[in-house]
Amino acid sequence: MNAYKEISWNGLWKQNSVLAQMLGLCPLLAISTNLVNAVSLGLATILVMMLANFAISALRAFIPYEIRIPVFILIIAALVTMVDLMFNAFLHDLYLVLGIFIPLIVTNCIVLARVEAFAAKNGLRASTLDGLMMGVGFIWVIALLGAVREIIGQGTLFSGIEMVFPTLSGIQLLPADYPGFLIAMLPPGAFFILGLLIAGRNWLESRANQRMRDKLFHDPGASVSSSPA
Amino acid sequence: MTNSPYLLKPASVQSVMLRVLLALLPGIAAYVWFFGPAILVQIALTSVTALAAEALILYLRKKPLKIFLTDGSALVTAWLIALTFPSIAPWWLTVLGTLLAIIVVKHLYGGLGQNPFNPAMVAFALMIVAYPQLMSQWPAAGFTDFAAQWQAIFGARQLDAITMATPLDALRTVLRDPEQRRMIAGLLGSNATFGNIGGRGWEWVALGYLTGGLWLLQQRIITWHMPVAFLAMLLAISATFGLYDPTRFAGPGLHLFTGGAMLAAFFIVTDPVSGATTPKGKLIFAAGVAVLTWIIRSFGAYPDGIAFAVLLMNIAAPLIDRYTQPPVFGRKQKDGGA
Predict the structure, then answer these.
(1) What mean pLDDT do residues A170-190 have?
(2) Is B138 helix (H, G, I), strand (E, B) or coil?
(3) Which of A46, A226, B12, B151 has its CA 20 to 30 A from that of B282?
(4) Interface membership of A228 toward B (CB under 8 Å)
(5) How many angstroms separate the CA atoms of B129 and B120, rounded?
(6) CB B107, CB B101: distance < 8 Å
């Protein structure tokens, strides 16, 4: 059970695909202009990552080592095509907004990285969980980035939700005469805010490390092995 | 007579910054004379904001407050922001620009001496991209009614009567319109926006900056390389194209005496932190800023290209420094390695 816990913790925080590994930044920066877009792309990515990890873990014994990368890409591309067609059929308006970034999940390095580093070497259940948790790690960061950019950029939240749930509409969070800070919606704003998020994570991590060091220093009897280094 | 060793005491950051502020005064005086006291309000706003932001971030970074707060570098950034932003911009615009300059551009990159980009120019670039309309509302020359200006800064409504396109904006409009193109030579003296050599009123502000800048040269706060290279390059390129096709390109007078050219030449490109540092590098850096400024002014969408030109050359500054290292003293040329 402990192994599953560690897989989850790695995906959500310790090896977070964005904040720690900084993989897949292209769709992250391009699509996080508002919360709805961000979460939609995040869900598509989770789906692809889970299915890809599952499929490749299941097939890993049959894939020749020398040509594994093309085979991985082929499997991922098939899954992405599926997700792409699903978006086109059921959420057509959103599909038009997300555009090229759904097909581009094929080339998203998080997917390939997890398949190569984890699914090709581990069992079915662990691989599927890893895909799910890495995806959840991606979606919470892209959702946070999207929400911050949307609030600062145009003072709203959930704008464009009617593309997913036709009965709902976005919320005007800040006063209606808020002038909007366009930079937050433009690419530079995405880089600035992502930089601040990464800085925040590093700060939390270094504080946690400092605490652990203090604890070990004050209480050398505490066993080192029990604390994940 | 003093005894040897005849070492010059290096100027402290504080005395350098204080003299830079002093040198800005003639330009500010002309600004107040032609465009009213709004600029003084903006300077007060940006100064207070900059010092408060500096104090806050110094406290967060656990740095000594007194040394860094009194070194004057935050004030120079604040004054440059006030002078490059429209003087009747709403208060939150300049405050936001100053906060970004001090907190993000200066301190998040390591504080005084570490920032790769000129803080005041980043503030200008960010704000003109985010709020192009508010950043293009400049006071009309001669309209110095303080009450109206105060309302423009702190009131909710914008007053059309006191705003006017900048000379560079007006020039752009003329250049876009084929009917008006042949009038470009006749603009000076005939149009309310233009004076004798540059923008009306702005030419005097520019002269004020020139005076202050020359004094900085005499005080050896700045070296001659950057202002000379910048102004000479801007003069050369605008004169060449102005002569080549006077109906499509503005002449050197307009380029040198409108917008922020003079301010840039002596106070902005000469920023010792974000620019190149070797003598040859300074020449290349400032000339590059001039060329980019001219290109952005002539072909770009934004009225004044100086901020973007400076930021682009800031990126190139480390590379320029690397390839212009002077040889070690006593050697003809450097041997191997950079």
Answers:
(1) 84
(2) strand
(3) B12
(4) no
(5) 14
(6) no
Q: Is A22 on the interface with B (CB under 8 A)?
A: no
- Distances in Å between the alpha carbon of A120 and those of A46, A65, A70, A80? 18, 10, 13, 19
- What's the whole-number mean pLDDT along residues B255-270? 88
Tokens encoding A181: 């800070």
Indicate the pLDDT class of residue B161, thresholds 50, 70 and 90. Answer: low
The CA angle A88-A89-A94, to the nearest 5 degrees, is: 45
Residue of B nearest to A195 (CA): B108
Domain boundaries, chain A: 2-217
Q: Single out the residue of B73, B118, B113, B114 nearest to residue B100, CA to CA.
A: B118
pLDDT per residue over A128-139, tens digit each?
Answer: 999 999 999 999
Using the predicted structure, report yes or no on whether residue B142 has a pLDDT greater than 90.
no
Q: In this prediction, does ipTM exceed 0.90?
A: no
Q: Report CB contact under 8 Å: B131, A179.
A: yes
Q: What would the two tokens of residue A10 be?
A: 């790695």
Cβ of B129 within 8 Å of Cβ of A179? The answer is no
Contacts of A186 in chain B (CB under 8 A): 129
Res. B202: pLDDT tops 70:
yes
pLDDT attached to residue B77: 94
Q: What pLDDT score was predicted for residue A139? A: 94
**Contact between chains at B104 and A188 (C-beta distance less than 8 A):** no
Within an 8 Å CB–CB cutoff, is residue A187 touching chain B? no
Under the banding of pLDDT at 50, 70 and 90, the label for residue A204 is: very high
At A39-98, the pLDDT tens digits run 999 999 999 999 999 999 999 999 999 999 999 999 999 999 999 999 999 988 888 888
Contact A182 B104 (CB under 8 A): no
CA dist B38 and A227 (Å) reads 61
Conformational region of residue A58, where left means phi above 0, alpha means psi within -120 to 50, and beta covers everything else: alpha
Q: Where are the domains of chain B?
A: 12-159, 165-323
Q: Is the pLDDT of residue B166 over 90?
A: no
